[in-house]
Specification:
The complex is a heterodimer of chains A (about 525) and B (about 180).
Chain A: H1 3-9, H2 11-19, E1 20-25, E2 29-34, H3 39-48, E3 52-58, E4 68-75, E5 80-87, E6 90-92, H4 102-112, E7 115-117, H5 136-142, E8 170-174, E9 186-192, E10 195-202, H6 210-213, H7 223-226, H8 234-249, H9 255-283, H10 287-308, E11 317-318, E12 321-322, H11 328-353, H12 356-362, H13 370-375, H14 380-384, H15 392-395, H16 416-439, E13 456-464, E14 467-476, E15 479-486, H17 488-499, H18 508-515, H19 519-523
Parallel strand pairs in A: 2-5, 6-7
Antiparallel strand pairs in A: 1-2, 3-4, 4-5, 8-9, 9-10, 11-12, 13-14, 14-15
Helix pairs in contact in A: 2-3, 4-5, 8-9, 9-10, 9-16, 9-18, 10-11, 11-16
Chain B: H1 2-8, H2 23-35, E1 44-50, H3 56-63, E2 76-78, E3 87-91, H4 96-107, E4 114-118, H5 120-124, E5 148-150, H6 157-181
Parallel strand pairs in B: 1-2, 1-3, 3-4, 4-5
Helix pairs in contact in B: 2-6
The chains are: A alpha+beta (about 525), B alpha/beta (about 180).
Chain lengths: ~525, ~180
């Protein structure tokens, strides 16, 4: 019996059909339409059937009065995604049954003024009360240039945070401006002595209204905006977006373009991970190691510029292919550079891991259990370090990954050391993938050349350096009417809150660096 | 053994000369010559604030400390607190949620101080000029006075070094004007 048949026969699937208005099976997805009151029930049944919560996003055109939401799940056994749609101003909240959806639902509430019945944490997520925002949902829908009303500026409304209430507990507020070279975010520690009882992150200082800025613009023209989601994941986000549009318009990308995309994606993974690995060495004070990671990183950035013309590999990916071809000499130079890079990297890795002072700090620090990884639907290297196999390149392959076997880096202990090992192994695997891809690079066009103007919605996904990124696009005559992005960082921040529990304050920077999430990619 | 073998290798820092192929390095070389003898010619302490960038500017700021660039050899040192800083390095666009933090950081700095706006977002508001979520048009100079603008998407580490050295010149001027008056 195939998985699909077994799934169709399962009691959970019967529940989904029972609660839905329609269930449609496509070649690459299942689309469910249901009512606002039944949405949570459908989602719960999908989760019980083995579905992994991916994201909950706004899906109606930005101009509609009654918002529509889309809750997306992945069914790893089926290799399919499920999109559950519901429309209404009042939606039964899912996060009371599935904690992973909490931030997604708060974001939906803020952006569209949707009432989520039963939402436990109703504090505003995107609009900080003390920053003097006016009516946020109204401002977003009208896209007024500024929603700050002078009389309201810096109202002293507080964003309440609560500790555990333990005796003698005190609070340490940190941020948004930190001591290092890092993005802004606020961390509130509730501590007893050195021990962290509880930590709460408060993000969205970098909320730039990115998703709304895309609305009304032509799909071909917003890749520069997508590349601003998170600087060091520019390619991954661009590829996810391009794939969403290609899915929607039915465009087939030429083989060579897919191969070139793979090379870019893996180059990005390498330079991204090098910062994390070096950062962990910095945070234990091991500068002999960290400065060499920085050395390698700068070398890779220069290699990026030599190959693509941009240190961040921006401006290459386009809808229907890639905009710049690479000459064989350039590709060979990249392969050569990677050969010597790999040698230096192996040496550096073994030097770092043979230092007892390093191991002493990272071993058993900042543990994320497999249970927490499941509960919060964590993604990327963080989940893989806790034993959750979740690499989209393997489970939901796209582009050139459909033809390539990717060795997924895994670890079980869920501590900082596990995350270090997972990321280090991913760097090696990326170098191997690039070199083998360059060896068998197909010739031919790099762009389809065909232009279509689709109408409808599409999902695109990509395994970015920090984990899976999902992008929802709805278009109307070739123009974006809704863009919703769920990055890996957005999903993993709450994992960090759990990872630091029971650790000591001086280990926080180290644990934070082992996650190394993007603040901009979360805040959008 | 690995640590020791590093000592035997040639230095990995880039050579700074006015004949270099990279225009940003040429600019740095020229600025270094102009700054010698100034009040702040020895060191500039920098505090960075990301007021809304996509983290690309922060990546490049981090790489200013990479051994190839090694910004400390030009006297540029990143400090933890604005109270220790001469220069505030701000990337943008300035979001509504970050505006107050930026103002407070600037207010915490002692005189003489200078602000460098780094990246297209900080200089012009970039792609977010018309967004509901940025303050006015997102330009840093709408929130705090800016001495040097460093455009780029993002500016390279050497562009940033040059921008900070230029801010050092602005600080020299401020000090000269002050001592002239007294």
């Amino acid at each position: 019996m195939t998985f699909a048949t077994r799934f169709r026969k399962s009691i959970e699937y019967q529940v989904v059909e029972e609660l839905s208005r329609s269930v449609r099976w496509d070649a690459n997805r299942i689309v469910v339409n249901t009512d606002a009151e039944r949405l949570a029930g459908v989602c719960e049944a999908l989760a019980k059937a083995g579905g992994i919560f991916d994201s909950a996003v706004l899906s109606s055109p930005a101009s509609t009065r009654v918002p529509q939401v889309c809750y997306a799940f992945r069914m790893p056994d089926l290799g399919l995604g499920v999109s559950v749609f519901a429309r209404g101003k009042n939606i039964t909240c899912l996060s009371t049954r599935l904690d992973a959806a909490a931030w997604d639902e708060r974001k939906i509430k803020d952006l569209a003024g949707v009432q989520l019945d039963g939402l436990e944490d109703a504090r505003p997520l995107l609009a900080h009360p003390e920053s003097g925002w006016g009516d946020f949902a109204e401002a977003v829908s009208k896209n007024r240039q500024t929603v700050l009303k002078p009389s309201e500026a810096y109202a002293s409304r507080e964003y309440a945070m609560e500790g555990t209430g333990a005796d003698g507990e005190f609070e340490i507020p940190v941020g948004p401006v930190h001591a290092g070279i890092i993005e802004p975010g606020h961390f509130r520690f509730f501590v007893g002595g050195e021990d962290i009882h509880r930590m709460e992150t408060r993000m969205f200082y970098l909320h730039r209204g990115l998703e709304r800025q895309a609305v009304g613009r032509h799909v071909q023209r917003i890749l520069p905006l997508i590349e601003q989601v998170s600087g060091d994941e520019s390619v991954a986000n661009a590829v996810a977006f391009a794939q969403a549009v290609e899915d929607l318009e039915g465009i087939r990308v030429p083989e060579r373009a897919e191969s070139l995309r793979l090379v870019l994606l893996e180059l990005e993974r390498i330079y991204s991970h090098l910062a994390d690995l070096g950062g962990m060495a910095t945070d234990v004070g091991f500068y002999a190691s960290s400065s060499q990671f920085l050395l390698l990183r700068e070398e890779m950035m220069r290699q990026n510029a030599a190959l693509s013309g941009d240190r961040f590999l921006r401006g290459v990916v386009s809808i229907g292919g890639v905009d710049r071809n690479a000459t064989q000499e350039n590709l060979d130079a990249t392969a050569d550079a990677l050969a010597s890079f790999s040698k230096a990297f192996d040496e550096l890795e073994s030097m770092t891991l043979s230092s007892s002072t390093f191991l002493d700090r990272v071993f058993t620090t900042g543990k994320v259990s497999a249970f927490v990884a499941d509960e919060l639907a964590l993604v990327g290297p963080v989940a893989r370090a806790s034993g959750k196999s979740c690499d989209l390149r393997r489970h939901f392959p796209y582009g050139a990954y459909k033809k390539r076997a990717v060795c997924e880096s895994m670890a079980a202990s869920g501590d900082v050391l596990a995350r270090f090992n997972v990321k280090a192994n991913e760097v090696k695997e990326s170098a191997r993938l690039i070199r083998s891809e360059i060896n068998q690079m197909p010739s031919g066009p790099t762009h389809t050349g065909e232009k279509r103007t689709g109408h409808g919605f599409g999902w695109g996904w990509c395994e970015a350096p920090r984990g899976s990124c999902s992008i929802f696009v709805r278009t109307d005559k070739g123009r974006i009417s809704r863009l919703s992005i769920r990055t890996a960082s957005f999903r993993n921040w709450r994992g960090l809150e759990r990872a630091v529990n029971g650790n000591i304050i001086p280990d926080f920077p180290l644990i934070n660096k082992s996650f190394n999430l993007s603040y901009a990619g979360t805040d959008l | 053994m690995h640590e020791l073998s590093a000592l035997l290798r040639a230095p990995r820092t880039d050579e700074i000369s006015e004949e270099a192929t990279d225009p940003a390095i040429r600019k740095v070389a020229a600025l270094l010559r102009r700054r010698s003898g100034g009040v702040f010619s020895r060191s500039i302490h920098v505090r960075m604030v990301d007021a809304g960038s996509s983290n690309d500017v922060e990546v490049e700021e981090g790489l200013m400390n990479a051994p190839q660039v090694d910004c400390e050899r030009f006297g540029i040192h990143f400090v933890a607190s604005p109270r220790h800083a001469d220069v505030l390095l701000v990337s943008g666009p300035v979001t509504l949620n970050m505006r107050r933090a930026l103002e407070k950081t600037y207010a915490a700095m002692a005189e003489p101080r200078a602000v460098v706006a780094a990246g297209d977002g900080a200089c012009t508001g970039g792609l977010f000029k018309h967004s509901y979520a940025v303050y006015k048009s997102g330009r840093v100079d709408e929130v705090v006075p800016v001495s040097v603008h460093v455009p780029g998407n993002p500016p390279s580490p050497y562009d940033l070094v040059a921008g900070i050295l230029q801010a050092g010149l602005a600080l020299d001027k401020k000090e000269a004007a002050k001592s002239g008056k007294s």
